[in-house]
Specification:
Two copies of one chain form a homodimer. The first copy, chain A, is of the alpha+beta class. Chain A has two domains: about 150 residues, Jelly Rolls; about 80 residues, Winged helix-like DNA-binding domain superfamily/Winged helix DNA-binding domain (Arc Repressor Mutant, subunit A). In chain A, about 40% of the residues lie in helices and about 25% in strands. In chain A, strands 1, 2, 3, 4, 5, 6 and 7 form a seven-stranded antiparallel β-sheet that branches. In chain A, strand 4 and strand 5 form a beta hairpin. In chain A, helix 2 packs antiparallel against helix 4, helix 6 runs antiparallel to helix 9 and helix 7 crosses helix 8. The radius of gyration of chain A is 19 Å and the shape is globular. The interface between A and B is large, with 46 and 46 residues. Chain A binds a DNA duplex through helix 8. Chains A, B: Keywords: DNA-binding, Transcription, Transcription regulation.
Chain lengths: ~240, ~240
DNA sequence: ATTTTAAAATGATTTTTGTCATGTTTTATT
DNA sequence: AATAAAACATGACAAAAATCATTTTAAAAT
């Protein structure tokens, strides 16, 4: 069930302040506020489906969204996890293509939908915004090149170690003996992130735990030994 | 040895007509012409190195360039092959990062170097160009997502079949019994394209030949049975 | 034309990873 | 609280792919 609530106007939105929309003009902000559509989403809900036509972009005010492609074998390859302050769907929209991936909620989320026309108006009228967006797209491309190279040239052990390090960078909070990855991901989702079978992830996580690189706390993972994971991940700067 | 020659002005450049620079204004074209730097490159030469700072963009007037990342195991993951009318290096330039990959000449090339300031001037002053570039970046991102998903979820046999189909799409010329892939790639380079070991590619190509899906003609590959390759590649629309 | 070097091919073997089957634990639902 | 359904775990095995060693062939270089 979709819940539409009274929402903060964009002008006051805190997550916006640290997003690509951070430096918009007063009129653009008002226009956004007037046309956006704020919706609360529960874990598991689907934001958009691969293969459908984008009608706008999503701004994450809070929560976590996984963006994945479904492979022909039925498995999910997670392209990225998107967080507060990030945008979704602009790439397919601006590429004038159908969604290349599906977006579903991983942690309960508050998300604003900005209709295509509203978004394009900002893009066309605010060149500085357009340039920020271009920069972000270019950096995303660099990240994807790196991911592709890792996927083909590194072992799954290395990739899992790297993934855990990245997760702890993004979601890390103090967790006593180490850094707690403060987001709930199933083994299947971690497998989708790394690009492998669930069983392989289960085995490797057990191995990492045995080697005291990580520990489990409920559904969350504690990173005990970053150096060890970095060594394992055959980290080369990326 | 770098050969600097007398070159066609951009206004007359045929490869430009089918590139992102196709609809530039007269003044912008003149400015490009005045500032570009035309260089002929021989097979094997390096255009730019991963990790170095981009100083401009490259426009391919003729030839083929492979863009690859070197993995920590020393192997090359080819990100893409770039052809006549395509641009190189703008992603790292606009992302304000060092080159994420290396570019080397695969087939003798004529390439214009456009200095950063000149390129940025066009980008800032011609919004329509900027939008075309954004669109291309977004589509490239979609392609990378697809490649990543293939890399993690498909077998090497499937990926090789897909790669051969794509190569014949781009480089295909009539070749008697089938379509000839009219570009010389070593087995090692095909391996870099697919993301696997050279020996694996050699074995699979032999298998494909035995199964009469392809044939060899000198250093080039003839695709005999596209349908068969498509079936093998487990094609899902991408 | 001969030597050197690089590329391609092939076999043997090991390692890695995926799959299937099954059991246990945890979480959600009635 | 009982039941059902996910999620997690583990073993056994099969398949895929990498590695290493060696040979053959083709292309460059002298």
């Amino acid at each position: 069930m979709i819940v539409r609530e009274k929402s903060t106007p964009c002008e006051m939105c805190l997550s916006r302040k640290f997003s690509m929309f951070s430096n918009l003009s007063e009129p653009h902000l008002c226009n956004l506020s007037d046309n956006k559509n704020f919706i609360s989403h529960k874990k598991g809900q689907i934001l958009f489906y691969e293969g459908t036509k984008p009608l706008g972009v999503f701004c994450i005010n809070d929560g976590v969204v996984k963006v994945f492609k479904t492979a022909s074998n039925g498995k999910e390859q997670i392209i990225r996890l998107a967080n507060k302050g990030e945008f979704l769907g602009y790439s397919s929209l601006l590429g004038e293509e159908v969604y290349s991936s599906t977006g579903t909620i991983v942690e309960d989320a508050k998300i604003c939908f900005v209709p295509k026309e509203t978004f394009l108006k900002v893009l066309v009228e605010d060149n500085s915004f357009h340039r920020r967006l271009t920069k972000a797209l270019c950096q995303d491309l660099g990240i994807m090149e790196h991911k592709l190279t890792d996927a083909t040239q590194k072992s799954i052990r290395e990739r899992l170690a790297f993934t855990l390090l990245k997760l702890s960078e993004t979601y890390g909070v103090d967790g006593g003996a180490g850094e707690k990855i403060d987001v709930v991901l199933t083994r299947e989702e971690i497998a989708g992130l790394v690009g492998t079978a669930t069983e392989t992830i289960i085995r490797l996580l057990s191995e990492f735990k045995k080697d005291e690189l990580i520990n489990f706390e409920g559904k969350k993972i504690i990173v005990l030994n970053k150096k060890g994971l970095a060594r394992l991940s055959d980290f080369y700067g990326g």
